[in-house]
């Protein structure tokens, strides 16, 4: 088991600054860099001899993803990013189905539906989000609900238990989720969840770098989605298997990068080594601490303050001058939605929150 202290020392980006910008990019860490360098050295020296090793790495990654998120291996698709995966999925859906979306959700959740002409309805994102969703599903005869598990601008997190209740009430409701700002922050069991399809890019909280992601499917999805994508890789480079490609592999029409997806496997193993229960516990403590401090300073939206559970992403009301001050004091964060966004992961500490809260107080 990797201790939290030892894990934190893996990240050079944490050594001379307060890094609270994981919602933009999860920092690279020493052991992953070592693995990537060794991989490229093997490629440099062995060239095509790497092919079998590459294929095994991809296969092992699929197994690791399935085990890590409690999804059947055959229902795991390895994708370059969530946006590409969703666009491929929608090519197989009937565009007459009515879709429910959230106002101000991440554009890559919204735009793919709009560009294909799906009839769409939006619900307001506020403290009563779940009730708005329930009302809309009932009144608007919704077929598809698509949303981010955690909102990219303010960190609002959908109630997963609510979605389970909704799915029981409307079993035919097709629920699609972007979990890019969620996976890696807490333990997650896909099979036990309400989601039919869940995808994510892995360069944020999963710490796997650019160019890799995943999509998870329930068994029934293949009966509702007639995918037309196909390629030699999907059939394991065997022409006789062209008509036997399983649903998830249709998202893998072309060759996959061994380094990119090997990085995903390495990072999932790294997180497992720390223990997702330990990561979840640390992230919950950081979230509660940040919410308490920001609430006392009156910097949070009411929809965040009044909800019983929040993610590890916060957006505070602030101007350009405060953002500049934070950056000058080596607090690495981002401007989003008219405010300043912070994102806390297991490698952050409560003392770091205290430190930049002191900066916020001095600036008032």
- The fraction of residues assigned to DSSP E strands is 5-15%
Arrangement of strands in the largest sheet: 2-8-7-6-5-3-4
CATH topology of the largest domain: Aspartate Aminotransferase, domain 2
Percentage of residues assigned to helices: 40-55%
Number of helical runs?
13
Taking Cα atoms only, what radius of gyration do you get, to the nearest Å? Answer: 21 Å
Number of domains: 2
CATH H-tier superfamily of the largest domain = Type I PLP-dependent aspartate aminotransferase-like (Major domain)
How widely separated are the two ends?
Answer: 43 Å
Low-pLDDT segments, ≥5 res: none
> How would the global form be characterised?
globular
Count of strand segments: 12
CATH-scheme architecture of the largest domain: 3-Layer(aba) Sandwich
What can be said about the biggest beta sheet? 7 strands, mixed
Please state the structural category.
alpha/beta
Order of helices and strands: HEHHEHEHEHEHEEEHHHHEHEEEH
pLDDT averaged residue by residue: 95
């Amino acid at each position: 088991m990797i201790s939290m202290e030892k894990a934190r020392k893996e990240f050079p980006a944490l050594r001379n600054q307060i890094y609270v910008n994981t919602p933009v990019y999860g920092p690279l860490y020493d052991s992953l860099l070592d693995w990537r360098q060794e991989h490229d050295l093997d490629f440099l020296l062995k060239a095509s001899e790497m092919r079998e090793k590459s294929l095994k790495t991809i296969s092992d990654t699929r197994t690791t993803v399935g085990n890590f998120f409690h999804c059947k291996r055959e229902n795991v698709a390895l994708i370059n990013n969530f946006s590409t995966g969703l666009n491929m999925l929608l090519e197989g859906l009937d565009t007459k189905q009515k879709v429910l979306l959230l106002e101000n959700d991440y554009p890559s959740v919204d735009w793919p539906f709009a560009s294909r002409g799906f009839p769409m309805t939006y619900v307001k994102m506020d403290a009563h989000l779940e009730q708005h969703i329930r009302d809309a599903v009932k009144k608007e005869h919704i077929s598809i609900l698509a949303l981010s598990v955690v909102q990219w601008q303010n960190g609002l997190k959908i109630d997963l238990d609510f979605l389970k209740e909704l799915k029981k009430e409307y079993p035919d409701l097709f629920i699609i989720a972007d979990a890019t700002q969620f996976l890696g922050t807490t333990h997650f069991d896909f099979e036990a969840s309400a989601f039919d399809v869940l995808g994510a890019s892995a360069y944020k909280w999963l710490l796997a770098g650019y160019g890799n992601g995943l999509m998870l499917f329930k068994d029934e999805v293949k009966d509702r989605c007639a995918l037309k994508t196909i390629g030699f890789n999907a059939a394991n480079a065997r022409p006789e298997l062209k008509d036997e490609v399983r649903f998830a592999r249709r998202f893998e029409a072309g060759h996959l990068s061994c380094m990119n997806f090997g990085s995903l496997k390495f990072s999932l193993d790294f997180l497992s080594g720390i223990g997702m229960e330990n990561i979840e516990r640390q992230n919950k403590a950081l979230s509660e601490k940040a919410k308490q401090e920001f609430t006392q300073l009156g910097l949070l939206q009411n929809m965040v303050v009044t909800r019983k559970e929040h993610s590890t992403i916060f957006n505070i009301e602030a101007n350009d001058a405060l953002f500049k001050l934070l950056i000058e004091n080596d607090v690495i964060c981002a401007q989003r939605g008219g405010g300043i966004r912070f994102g806390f992961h297991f490698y952050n500490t409560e003392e770091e929150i205290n430190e930049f809260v002191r900066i916020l107080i001095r600036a008032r």
